[in-house]
Design brief:
Elements: H1 2-26, E1 34-39, E2 42-44, E3 49-56, E4 63-66, E5 70-71, E6 73-78, E7 81-86, E8 93-100, E9 106-116, E10 138-145, E11 155-164, E12 170-178, E13 182-184, E14 190-196, E15 201-210, E16 219-229, E17 235-245, E18 272-279, E19 289-298, E20 304-311, E21 339-341, E22 347-353, E23 358-367, E24 374-385, E25 391-402, E26 408-412, E27 419-420, E28 425-433, E29 439-448, E30 452-454, E31 457-463, E32 468-476, E33 481-492, E34 498-510, H2 538-549, E35 556-558, E36 574-576
Parallel strand pairs: 2-9, 27-34
Antiparallel strand pairs: 1-3, 3-7, 4-5, 4-8, 6-7, 8-9, 10-11, 11-15, 12-14, 12-16, 13-15, 16-17, 18-19, 19-23, 20-22, 20-24, 21-23, 24-25, 26-28, 28-32, 29-31, 29-33, 30-32, 33-34, 35-36
Length: about 575
């Protein structure tokens, strides 16, 4: 059955792939395509699931493909976000997800999606199954243009609401706008609707141009051809003829005069847009608790009533004509892998917003501790109705940046001891990596408000978790007192921007005291007090000469002057070494 479904899907994709090829041949090559993640990463095959695919350089016709299952119903949200519908009943396993652009460029992410078995086995029933089978049946529940009447040569915006009135889900829904009275604008006239469950409705818009020949008609006709498939892979085609009154020229006498072309009037409806957002934290890191503030503006021309904000994405039930249905909004289907609400749910009521009105909505969130550094899209849904009771759901995406700054501690690895003013002193500084991953750090530098520093800059490099790196800087303080040291470490953050880590250390500088004069008076280093000596006579000199001839000591003998204390030294002559005879 799965093989049959895949074959049917491939038969449906063949003309679409041909159309993509023609578009690719007529347009320049796109930028580099990238695929970074798929959320949720694990789904059950018991029910259909919506996948959020993040990456870079997506376009409106980018298609999400799961290896072994084929192309999925893809909706373009932004150049970095796509949504894709995964039907129920897919075989369990681990799959590679790819994205494909119309120019032929592709990107893949291996093991990005895990499908678990959860399909319940049908139990035999005593009542025989009916022979008739259920099929999807798409019907038009409402349509309109941006003007009550159509004028030739004018541009209009058409809206169309489709509903699945059948008994099974409709997938791969594509609407083609055609006819002789209108020409498509902006797009090629083909809009992808996605998938609709039984009873579910979806509104689509298409810009069109009314041709000049419409002036000769009373009614302009727009043909919409809708194709879809069911869960078994069978293809169904429905065609609808939508009619609009045409503005007729007014006769002004016996001769017919031309009337000015009517100006298309804008659609009267509210439109909510997030014009700005901010957080109350300098940087988001894993485990950060922060408040997200949103500036919500009504850029439409009608009152938006009972506005409900759903952080993470959601929807609201509607009836067949687009009015709100019974039950509340659904806000539990969003993705909260990276950001989760705290202290309140992700659904909050904002009240009514007048045209051109602005209000600020706040949501308290926390960054998951397992979230890595990067840019993460966050989906927002606004559910509201207009003054006629028509229900709307506006989906938007904002981006939040998550950083992973190095977790380090800067301190002395031992007591620096006494620091003396005017003398070189050692500063034993170190940095310790307290994080769970390796930190790549730049230069570590020690500076201060005063003093002379040397050997105070050193490159750290890669520092493992729990590792230390020392820096033995030197400083000559200018004066005693407290000396505040500043230790800075350079590094590049996760978005390759230069950052700094700074820490302050304080040491106490003491006075070294007055300097010692080695050539001044006072006691000698041994504590002896030298006394004056008496000049020797010629006889003493002659005796020293004789002693030198016989190899005896010929040193000069000096006698201290009387009355000079020796401070404990033995009395007698002071022997002064001299040269031998």
């Amino acid at each position: 059955m799965i093989i049959s479904r895949l074959n049917s899907t491939l038969r449906w994709l063949t003309p679409l792939a041909l159309a993509f090829g023609l578009l690719a041949a007529a347009r320049p090559a796109l930028a580099a395509l990238g695929l970074t993640g798929v959320q949720p990463g694990t789904v059950s095959n018991a029910t259909a699931a919506q996948l959020a695919v993040t990456g870079t350089d997506f376009v409106t016709t980018t298609v999400v493909i799961v290896d072994g299952l084929g192309a999925l119903d893809t909706t373009f949200v932004a150049s970095t976000l796509l949504t894709a519908q995964l039907p129920a009943g897919a075989p369990p396993g681990v799959y590679t997800v790819r994205v494909l652009n119309p120019d032929g460029s592709a990107a893949a992410l291996a093991n990005a999606l895990t499908i678990t078995g959860g399909t319940a086995t049908p139990q035999p029933s005593a009542t025989p199954a009916p022979t008739a089978f259920a099929r999807p049946q798409l019907v038009v529940v409402s349509y309109g243009a941006s003007s009550a009447a159509i004028a030739a040569g004018a541009d209009y915006d058409f809206e169309l609401t489709l509903q699945n009135a059948g008994g099974s889900s409709a997938t791969n829904i594509v609407a083609e706008f055609a006819g002789e009275d209108f020409l498509p604008r902006v797009t090629g006239g083909i809009r992808a609707v996605g998938a609709l469950a039984p009873g579910q409705a979806n509104r689509i818009f298409q810009p069109l141009y009314a041709v000049r020949e419409v002036a000769a008609k009373k009614v302009a006709t727009l043909t919409v051809k809708v194709t879809s498939t069911n869960e078994a892979g069978s293809t169904f085609t429905d065609s609808f003829a939508l009619t609009f009154p045409v503005v007729q020229p007014v006769s002004g006498g016996p001769t017919r005069t031309a009337t000015p072309t009517a100006t298309a009037r804008p659609v009267v409806r509210p439109q909510l847009v997030v014009t700005g957002y901010r957080i109350d934290a300098d940087k988001l890191q894993p485990g950060s608790l922060f408040t997200l503030a949103l500036d919500v503006s009504n850029v439409g021309n009608s009152l938006a009533r009972r506005v409900t904000l759903i952080v993470g994405g959601g929807s609201a039930p509607t009836t067949g004509d687009g009015t709100p249905g019974p039950g509340g909004v659904s806000g539990g289907s969003g993705s909260f892998t990276d950001f989760a609400p705290v202290q309140s749910s992700n659904v909050q009521s904002l009240g009514d917003i007048q045209p051109t009105g602005v209000l600020v909505a706040q949501q308290k969130l926390i960054v998951n501790a397992s979230t890595k550094a990067g840019a993460y899209p966050l989906k927002l849904s606004f559910v509201y109705s207009d003054e006629r009771g028509q229900s709307y759901v506006d989906d938007q995406v904002i981006t939040l940046l998550v950083y992973q700054s190095p977790q380090v501690e800067i301190s002395f690895y031992r007591d620096p001891g006494p620091i003396f003013a005017g003398q070189p002193n050692l500063l034993p500084v170190q940095v310790v990596n307290l994080g769970r991953s390796t930190a790549v750090l730049g230069n570590m530098k020690v500076t201060g408000a005063s003093g002379q520093f040397s050997n105070n800059v050193l490159l750290v490099g890669a520092l493992d978790p729990g590792g230390t790196f020392p820096l033995d800087a030197s400083v000559i303080p200018d004066q005693p007192g407290p000396l505040e040291l500043t230790v800075t470490i350079d590094f590049n953050d996760d978005f390759n921007q230069p950052q700094k880590i700074a820490a302050s250390l304080t040491v106490e500088v003491i006075d070294a005291g007055p300097p010692i004069d080695p050539g001044g008076g006072g006691e000698t280093p041994g504590g002896e007090v030298p006394g004056p000596v008496v000049q020797e006579s010629w006889w003493d000199s002659f005796l020293r000469f004789l002693r030198g001839l016989f190899g005896l000591d010929s040193g000069q003998t000096q006698t201290p002057a009387p009355g000079v204390p020796l401070d404990g030294q033995p009395s007698g002559p002071v022997i002064v070494p001299g040269k031998g005879g």
